[in-house]
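Chain A, query sequence.
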Amino acid sequence: MNAPFRHWLASTAAALTLLGTASSADVHSAEAAPAAETQPELHRNDATDAFPVDEYRGHRSNDIIAFSSDAVLKSGESADEVIAILGNASSDGNVAREIAAIFGDARVTGPVGREVVAVFGNVYVNSTVDRDVVAFMGNVELGPEARVGRDVVTVGGTLKRDPAAIVGGSTQNISLGSPGSLEGLKIWLRRCALLGRPLALDAGLGWAWGIAAGFLAFHVLLGFLAQAAMQQCVTTLEQRPGRSLLAALIAVPAVPILALLLVMTVIGIVALPFLGVALLCASVFGKAVMLAWIGRRISRPFAATTNADATPADNPSIAKDDWSVPLAVLIGGAIVTVLYLVPVLGFVVYKLLGFIGLGVVLCTLLESWRSSRAGKVRTSATAADTTSAPADAASVANRPIAHAGMPRAGFWLRMAALILDLVLVLVLTNLVSNAFGHHMHSMGMPLLWAAAYGAVMWALKGTTIGGSICGLQLVRLDDRPIDWGTAIMRALGCFLSLIVGGLGFIWIAFDKDQQAWHDKIAGTVVVRTPKGTPIV
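Chain A, predicted structure.
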């Protein structure tokens, strides 16, 4: 199998070299010497793969090279090489050396002195080929008059051979998966990737359009589930576009540096999966935000025209955008899908949406964190003024902790406490596994132990060890104590927050009450306690 691949690599390198030296898309010079004088011997009997350099000299003027079109050699004509890039290569005449098609099909009905190669294309041979026939990510078909001197190799395709066809060497069929899926991938590479766009109008790209429709539906669903958070992000983009772009620019080098620092600390390796999931969710949500922003910009003039004759008394929502977030996402997605069809611009739009969307989400998180810090200062001042009055001191002391002026815990502080608890659970799980056997090393066991640990600590102490270190306390919204039912319900709700890519945890950053999904299920909230509060 090494010899065919060497021939294929040599043919591909020759094609790219000739592409760089050709002065036009199609070269078929009339200054070539007569075929009888310049054409080397078609049939070689040597067993080596090394060719004299002289064979490649003096024949560049009789090559046929086509870029983004078909390279055709008609019957009765001769050429040294026939090469097509982004097109088909076909020969009914006499070819002294190779026939190669890159992202195209090769069809041969005339004699070939060396190899026939197709990269991301099919090969049809019904003549004499002195050496090898290779198809990478394509099919090979040998007609009844096919005479192949050496090997026939197909990688990621199928081989169809007429009973009368003769192969001097071996036939090798290397499968890479379903032929149908590979054919769709080849079409996407040829019609989309090489033209710099995610989508194209082609019957073989139905699977790509299905994926695009699925992502758009998911983004619309996010618009239904997180309207307030998405509106907040859109407002951030409209009011602070410079900061949003700056956040994206800072995140590009900061993320790998942060990952490297976590790896250097060794124990921080545990946080790498959470960091990756958080960035992925932020990117997906940021793209939905960008679609909502585009749809809002497009739909705003129509909304203003529709409500022009109404008054605020008749329609109190006129002062606000009357178009819902999901509809804005749908409109923006439709516009972006059309842009995806434009060569080069399609990929530029795709990358910019994810890049700027991530910056918008990070900027919104930073603004929320600053607002929460300012709110804590105001709350502390109010609490101090309240406790200074003797008449109100008793009432404040008797209030539950959720309403005693203690601020809600933010996203990053809660994530820090969660990481500390996970590290503790992993260490304990590893110790127990080493002591009683290795059957506890499965993926699900640490999560089950973490859920059990959280439920027990919440029911007994209202916090965990990580929460105590970070100064956090779990309380109920109805002022009742945390019982076993609430603790177990919250622990089970954590699995729901996790299985959707951690979105239930990220919800803390956007929710007005700074609740995760499992907090909403259990009716709880996490507050910050004074420093030095013991866990026992």
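The radius of gyration is 34 Å. Residues 20 and 157 are 30 Å apart (CA to CA).
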